[in-house]
Amino acid sequence: MAIHDQISSNTTTMQTNHAEQLAIQELEKKEFDYSQRAQWLRAAVLGANDGLVSIASLMIGVGSVRQDVKAMTLIGFAGLVAGACSMAIGEFVSVYSQLDIELAHIKRNKEESDELVKAEKLPNPVQAALASALAFTMGAVVPLLAAVFIGNYKVRLGAVTGATTAALFVFGGVGAVLGRAPVWPSCLRVLVGGWLAMGITFGLTKLIVLTGV
């Protein structure tokens, strides 16, 4: 009976250890999947933040010397298109280079079968380019929408600044959550950076016009 009990105990222990190992593997897999998704989402947030700050700074810079809404919205739209195209092309080239490196690695290891290539999670340059352009556009639309329907010059500048501030706060918070960082310090850093960009652009543009440089 003692031997039988010992065998039963060992079997139970092995089953428990196996179950724990499976649980750990499943947890690691979920953690890896979360990490992969978080990287893409965080890149999207950074792209949107780039579009927001770039276009808001351009519009406020032009608004420092031109009071008509047409000039502000036109420069904002031009910046949106140029920035989105630049982001898409840059991301496409970068990810395509990464794809070439990974395919070359597969070939060097003589593992170039169609099944293996399909099984590998290879980067998609077109997907990355579209995601980057879309993220930039989403951020750039915020100051444009804040300005396009407001005729009064001072109210328009205030609306662009206010909408940009709110969006910066949101993007900073989302980026912190995805990066598992403290939310308030992240929001503060993003806000201060955005305000500095808008303030410097406004001040330098005004200075250039006033001094006739």
Report on this model:
The protein is mainly α. The protein has one domain (50-211). The protein has six helices and no strands.
Number of H- or I-type helical stretches: 6
Using the CA coordinates, give the radius of gyration: 26 Å
Shape, please? elongated
Order of helices and strands: HHHHHH
Average pLDDT value?
80
**Number of strand elements:** 0
Gap from first CA to last CA? 99 Å
Strand pairing plus helix content: what structural class?
mainly alpha
| Quaternary organisation | single chain
Assess the beta-strand content as a share of residues: under 5%
Quick structural gist:
It catalyses: Fe(2+)(in) = Fe(2+)(out). With 213 residues, this protein is mostly helical.
